[in-house]
Amino acid sequence: MKFETRAIHDGQQPDPQTGAVIVPVYQTSTYQQDGLGVHRGYEYSRTGNPTRTALETAIASLEEGKFGLAYASGLAASAAVLTLFQSGDHIVVGDDLYGGSYRLFEKVFRKFGIDATYAQIDDPASFKKQIRNNTKLVWVETPTNPLLKLVDLKALSKITKDAGVLLAVDNTFASPYLQKPLLSGADIVVHSTTKYIAGHSDIIGGALVVNDEKLYQELKFYQNATGATPGPWDSWLVIRGLRTLSLRMREHSANALFLAHFLEGHPQVKKVIYPGLSSHPQHELAKKQMSGFGGIVSIELHGGIAAVEAFTKELKIFVLGESLGGVESLVTYPAKMSHGSISREERYRRGITDEFLRISVGIEHKDDLKQDLENALAAIGA
After folding, report:
1. Which residue, among 134, 125, 77, 79, has the nearest Cα to 105 in the 3D structure?
2. Based on the domain organization, do 119 and 261 belong to the same domain?
3. CATH number, domain with residue 273
4. How far apart are CA 115 and CA 91, in angstroms?
5. Strands (DSSP E) along the chain, which ranges?
6. Mean predicted lDDT score pLDDT of the chain
7. Which terminus of the chain has a lower count of CB atoms within 10 Å, N or C?
8. Of 187, 110, 134, 132, nearest in space to 156 by CA
9. Does 240 participate in catalysis according to the annotation?
């Protein structure tokens, strides 16, 4: 079956008892057992819940994977990957990534003896140089947050497989509609389902997808042992969102490309970063590796922090706020929001200046979005 069909049907068969065509919200903490140690597949909702099972099955299908695991947040999913390792282990991380992931590696797991070093995200050879005898994992985002850099997943997966190292890919920005890392050799796919998969800015969630059963069983054990699982209502809301993922991603991508072209020609905009632009240094890789370019456009403005303040103050349709991937358009200021946990020196080294903005393009009419940006840009220096 095609993606759009699987998004609506896989893991979501009509309820056998009532015939309900929508997966029920199994709002229960426990389940009746038929005898001592005899149950019907569910014992306790931290361990498993039928609504969550439907979500995990659907996400695995959309990523072309065998096993899915749902979590209470994207960072809970990320932390679950790191529970596979122990003190003395080493991981290699792409050097452009979400600030919360950086904080997790540097402020939480480093004190437990898991060492992280950083490789140049858009150069697979840089990862090869960083791999040591005790390296257990390579972690990347592609496209990255917020600089929208890409890594050649097939080239990187060859390096990790030759070294016997796991490859985890955060696929949040692309979603499984635009990119399927497992098909390019990744071992673990990570999602913040808060973003495009749920798509309506009304839940917090995360997910992992793998193909290896042993790896799945290890992750499943930690999922139950640590308990960072989503409740049935949040699971149901993510299911509701993923059913329209293909439609939304097409609109996000089309609107983002339209606005990226507009912004690229505007005199108040110093720089536009979007994989769909021919000016993007990895545009050809994006065309080869992804089926679309996504809904995130990053920009730098002329005029420093004063320009940023004037621009964001004038926005009427775009909302200034954290997060991304919802149906509404958002503007995020990474220096104070998504990447506030990273020092200014480190941010500047990466290219995240005080004039840098990340735009999550929604699915409103493109002309209204363009007009809103045009009005806000006109306020700079006015």
Report:
1. 79
2. no
3. 3.90.1150.10
4. 6
5. 67-71, 90-94, 115-119, 135-141, 166-170, 188-191, 206-210, 269-273, 296-301, 319-320, 330-332, 356-360
6. 96
7. C
8. 187
9. no
Cβ–Cβ under 8 Å, residues 329 and 369: yes
Q: Side chain identity at 194, as an amino acid letter?
A: T
Structure tokens at 245: 């993922």
- In 3D, which of 253, 249, 65 has the Cα closest to residue 169? 65
Tokens 């896989």 correspond to 10
Amino acid found at 132 = R
Look at the chain and report how many structural domains it folds into: 2
Given a contact cutoff of 8 angstroms between Cβ atoms, the answer to whether 80 and 228 are in contact is yes
User: Count of CB atoms within 10 A of residue 281's CB?
Assistant: 11
Which residues, including other chains, have CB under 8 Å from residue 48's CB and lie 6 or more apart?
41, 42
**96, 170, 234, 372: the active-site residue:** 170
Active-site entry in 10, 46, 154, 243: 46
Chain mean position to CA 285: 19
Percent of the chain having pLDDT more than 90? 90
Q: What is the pLDDT, as a whole number, of residue 211?
A: 98
pLDDT tens column, 129-170: 999 999 999 999 999 999 999 999 999 999 999 999 999 999
Residue-number span of the structural domain to which 367 is assigned: 246-378
* 190 and 110 inside one domain: yes
Q: Which helix (H) or strand (E) holds 349?
A: helix 344-350
The rounded distance, in Å, linking the Cα atoms of 282 and 253 is 17
98 counts as catalytic? yes
